[in-house]
Every structure is written in C-alpha cells, then in structure tokens.
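User: Here's a structure from my thesis project, written as structure tokens. My advisor, Dr. K., wants to see whether a designed sequence matches the one we expressed. Can you design one independently, without my sequence as a hint?
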C-alpha cells in the first residue's frame, strides 16, 4: 500500500527547506493544524497527515491488532518519514500524538531533529504519586459511555476538552470532528489512548523537545506537563496563558510564537 495515500499525506511550503511534520490528536484530523501550520510555510517544508481511521486516511488500512497500542501509530510515523526521505524533521504533535512521537523517536532517532509536544500526557489515569486527569473509576465510566453512545459522548466531552466555553463554536467543531470518525475505530483508538502508560518511555528519548502546556487543561493538567518535562531529557517547558486542550485552535498565535521561539534557540 502507498504509505502517503494511506495516511493522506499533504505537503506544502518551502520544498527545499527544513521539514516540519504535524500530527493530530484523538478524534481529529490534519485540519486541526490549519491555524498553525501555514505560519511555517515560508521557512519550512510542511507535512500534514491523518492517522489511519481519521480524516482522509484509507480506512480500509485500519487493522485493530496493529492499532491496539500506540506503537502501531508510531510505526506509521516512521514509515511516512522514511517514504518522504526529508532528513531529520521537527515533529509537532498534539495530545495522544505526543506519545506516538516519543515512541517513534525512540525507535528511529535519526528521523527526528526536534519534538514539539503540545498537551502531552504519558498516562491519563491517576496512579500512586502521579496526578493524571482521571481516576480509575472515571476512566471506566468514560469508556463505558463511549461504548454505549459514542455520539452522545462526543457532544458531552468535546466542549470540556476544548475548554473555552466563551467560544462555543470551537467546542462544536471538535464535536463534529469526533462524530465524523467511525465509532468502532474511535472506540478502539480511545482505549489505545486513555489506557496507555508511556511514563517509562520518556527517559529513553534523546531528541530535544519542547513541552507546550496550557495553564488550565482538563485532559493534561499542568502537573502532567511538568512531569513530562522533568522526565524527558533535553526538554524545555513553555506554559501558554491559554485554557483547554487544543491551543492549535483556541490560541494559535501563542502556540506559533512558542514554537518559533524554541526553534530560534
């Protein structure tokens, strides 16, 4: 199968410039970067893609066994970068894609120059001495509700994830994005996401990384961003004066400034 078609890869910007690749989060697609990626087209070779099962990807390529864990998505990232042969890239990842990027960078450090991790969480469930976003009971209830009524779950949780109640159109957009995903694939991806635990992987990353954290995020609390920074070698932490889990939509200018400042160092 054509890897680039499978993941709906789109290229733009400065074709002979340094490569910058953007990866979206759960329930989203590459359109979530539309307010951020264009800011780098004058200076970078910009690459966007959809995870299999999302957006314009080839849904027929979805394999429940391959994608039962985040490793399957990380393998896709490696295949995309190998196929593009653009050299070490700046990889900008949001939400669950941050840990997908971590796994890919551990596997193939030669493919990555820098990581930009927006709203990262290595574990969504609380544990002894670890903050997390959900208690075990809450995550069980979340997944049960998702199984019983995916569309209702999407309408309930998307505005909370977006975290900007004064801009309800953004919550509506995220709800619509969730609802466009095949419910069976979404349920499978949700388990791979919310039941993952990548805390032990962080110390093995040798790629320099920027950790971008919003000051108020129900999915990745500030304690989690701090944890990632403290356990990720060669990392820099930037806390945006923004709320919610999707600054790529709610605070794109601040996010662009954070990335630009990091790349200039």
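Assistant: Designed independently from the structure alone:
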């Amino acid at each position: 199968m054509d890897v680039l078609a499978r993941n709906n890869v789109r290229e733009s910007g400065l074709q002979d410039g340094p490569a910058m690749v953007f990866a979206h989060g759960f329930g989203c697609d590459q359109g979530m970067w539309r307010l951020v990626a264009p800011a780098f087209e004058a200076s970078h070779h910009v690459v966007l893609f959809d995870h299999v099962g999302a957006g314009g990807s080839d849904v027929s390529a979805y394999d429940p066994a391959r994608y039962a864990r985040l490793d399957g998505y990380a393998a896709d990232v490696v295949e995309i970068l190998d196929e593009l042969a653009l050299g070490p890239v700046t990889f900008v990842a949001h939400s669950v894609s941050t840990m997908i990027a971590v796994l890919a960078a551990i596997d193939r450090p030669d493919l990555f120059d820098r990581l930009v991790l927006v709203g990262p969480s290595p574990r969504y469930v609380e544990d002894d001495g670890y903050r997390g976003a959900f208690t075990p009971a809450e995550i069980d209830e979340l997944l049960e509700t998702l199984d019983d009524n995916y569309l209702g779950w999407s309408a309930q949780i998307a505005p909370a994830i977006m975290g900007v109640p004064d801009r309800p159109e953004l919550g509506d957009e995220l709800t619509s994005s969730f609802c466009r995903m095949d419910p069976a694939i979404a349920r499978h991806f949700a388990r791979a996401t919310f039941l993952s635990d990548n805390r032990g992987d962080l110390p093995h990353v040798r790629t320099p990384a920027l950790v971008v954290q919003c000051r108020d995020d129900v999915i990745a609390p500030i304690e989690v961003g701090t944890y990632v920074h403290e356990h990720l070698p060669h990392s820099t932490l930037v806390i945006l004066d923004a709320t919610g889990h999707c600054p790529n939509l709610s605070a794109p200018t601040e996010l662009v400034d954070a990335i630009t400042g990091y790349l200039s160092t």
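When you compare it with your expressed construct, this may help: The longest strand covers residues 235-243.
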